[in-house]
Amino acid sequence: MTDKLPRIFGRVFSWSHNIHTKSLEPLIHIEDLGDEIIITMDLPYVRKEDIDIYLTERILEVKAQMCRKYRCEGLGRIQKGIEFESFHKIIELPSNIIPEKARSRFKDGILEIRLPKRIRKRKIDIK
Q1: How far apart are CA 26 and CA 15, in angstroms?
Q2: Rounded CA gap, 14 and 100, in Å?
Q3: pLDDT values of the chain reduced to their tens digit, one per residue, 127 residues
Q4: Cβ-proximal residues to 106 (8 Å cutoff; 6+ apart), any chain
Q5: How far apart are CA 49 and CA 109, in angstroms?
Q6: CA–CA separation, 43 vs 87, rounded Å?
Q7: Do the beta carbons of residue 63 and residue 51 sit within 8 Å?
Q8: Which of 16, 18, 42, 56 sits between 20 and 30 A of 65, alpha carbons compared?
Q9: Domain residues of the chain, as ranges?
Q10: What is the pTM of this model?
């Protein structure tokens, strides 16, 4: 187990990025409210018109182009002075949702996506 610890910490605390596509993975928060899932995403340097959201019943994909490049100097000894131009994130949702009823809003660099769940189980009243 102790030999796995550095790899686990590296995955949890590393900055997720793709050098080839010059994209960063944004910070996200997922909240399950029972009847809907709320996903909040931090997208600095992005304008509303530069965000694309793609959705199926189980997968959410967000692509966002930055309005200016972000230069990162301290990712490590080898990766110095990398410039990023976009954000990209694919999320496997914890439940099936109804894509047609999804809503989103973007304000001050924060994207909020509200996804109503497809509820298959419901109580039937007895008469």
Answers
A1: 9
A2: 35
A3: 444 444 444 444 444 655 556 788 999 999 999 999 999 999 999 999 999 999 999 999 999 999 987 777 665 565 566 788 899 999 999 999 999 999 999 999 999 999 999 987 777 889 9
A4: 43, 46, 48, 51, 112
A5: 12
A6: 7
A7: yes
A8: 56
A9: 24-116
A10: 0.74
Topology of domain 24-116, CATH: Immunoglobulin-like (2.60.40)
Residue labelled with tokens 């304008």: 47
**Selection from 76, 62, 92 nearest residue 19 by Cα:** 76
Q: Are 41 and 105 in contact (CB under 8 A)?
A: no
Q: How far apart are CA 33 and CA 31, in angstroms?
A: 6
What does the block give as tokens for 11? 């995955």
Written as six digits, the tokens of 67 are 């309005």
